[in-house]
Amino acid sequence: MMRITESYAAHAKLKPGQMAIIDEKEKITYEEWHKRVQSSAQWLKEMPHQQKRVAFLVSNGVPFLQLFAGAASAGWTAVPLDPRWSNKECAEKLLLSDADLVIVEDRYIKRIEKYKLDMPVFSLSEWKERISLSVNVQSNKSNTEGDPAFYMGFTSGSTGSPKAFIRRQQSWIESFQMTASVFGITHKDHVLILGTLLSSHFLYGAISTLYFGGTVTLLEKFVPDKAKNILERGDITAIYTVPTMTESLLQMDAFGKHPLLVLSSGADWGNSSKKQLVNRNPHITFFDFYGTSELSFVSYLSSDDFLQKPTSVGKPFPSIQVEIRRVDQTVCKPNEIGRIYVKSPMSFSGYLQDEKPPEEWLTVYDMGWLDADGYLYMSGRENGMIVYGGLNIFPEEIERVLNEQPEVNRSIVIGLPDPYWGEIPVAIIENVQQTKTIRQAVKATLAAYKVPKKWLVTDKMIETSGGKIARASMKKWAEEQLLCKP
Fold this sequence. Notes:
- By secondary structure, the chain is an alpha/beta fold.
- Among the domains are: 1-219, ANL, N-terminal domain (Rossmann fold, 3-Layer(aba) Sandwich), CATH 3.40.50.12780; 385-484, 2-Layer Sandwich (GMP Synthetase, Chain A, domain 3), CATH 3.30.300.
- It is 33% helix and 25% strand.
- It contains 15 helices and 25 strands.
- The strands form six sheets. A nine-stranded mixed β-sheet has the order 2-1-10-9-11-12-13-14-15.
- Strand 13 and strand 14 form a beta hairpin.
- Residues 397-468 form the AMP-binding enzyme C-terminal domain.
- Belongs to the ATP-dependent AMP-binding enzyme family.
- Its EC number is 6.2.1.3.
- Residues 10-352 form the AMP-dependent synthetase/ligase domain.
């Protein structure tokens, strides 16, 4: 069974001097990258363990990827932790992960020491010193497990508490094949990762590029000016992004003049923004793809498809089957809304808390429909659906209209309890002066019952680690705001 790190030895031999990773502190070649991954893997193999799980609290950079790839090479499971979590959240996830040891960036070490954990804790500098002393035995043959778990992540939690999910290496190997065949990424590409490696979208972008033998450039965190400067150099051939970042770069006219592949996922990307990107930047090709932490790639929309199917999230990837089902599990007709089910070789291995493996056909309770040509369309999350006087409202449908308005940067719609209607839709809009013209546009576009009954304005949305709007947190904020109003 192949490993996601198995190609590094060949890259180190065939092109030892090529840059593998460039971050804001260092540049390392494939020869050095292979050595670092091997030494990290060897050190882990020498550590006492029960679960073969290593947790780490480290910011974007070479050490993050080295820890992740080293764990994969050793047959261990990497458990990345988010510095933005509260102390309570971080401690809860560490205990949930049942990790054998923790590696922590030096600036966070006092924070972790407060938890009084039973597992060994190493600072990043201590870890670097220890692996430099470890005997480096370069062998990929010593791992006898067929397809070990290599990644424990946490879903973004945009609608509630995050859940721990497990992935096995073969699921990403399958995804690499899709990245090559559909997106055309090769060893010749220089890929800019705009966001945090704690998001599986950005982590996958970095690890897949290294698998192919391309070059990865990392930002410690997304700063539009820094991203613009890098793009204007002209050597970046592809970027992994999410819509909020794309919007920032569009406003700055940051995409340069050189051919560029834009790979976007993670949130709803408005049609007007896509049109703007295409019209102002003829040198850009984009793929907007729908996927989740659990399902991996599901469907993709190319720049060309966008012209014909502007509101679609695209057609399923070649190895993916998609069905839209009714409540009784019968399959819907074309253009009929139902729950989306996916059958995929790229899907996850289950949630940590669940004892039984996932079903062959999986759903994350997204709702949508397929048109007669097999293109997929999203209605919204089933568990986010607002039931207003017995009528079903999908917040995402209203948000798409809101986000098309020129005054609106970002918006979300949430459902709040109402003694008469059961639930009412409430709109929250980021950083606008007034909502009158926006309300008028929504009334002109949507059925009357879908128009938000209350409107709130916030200076800045609360975000998840993946850059999405944190719906649960914004809902709590809205409840507090409306409670204060007379």
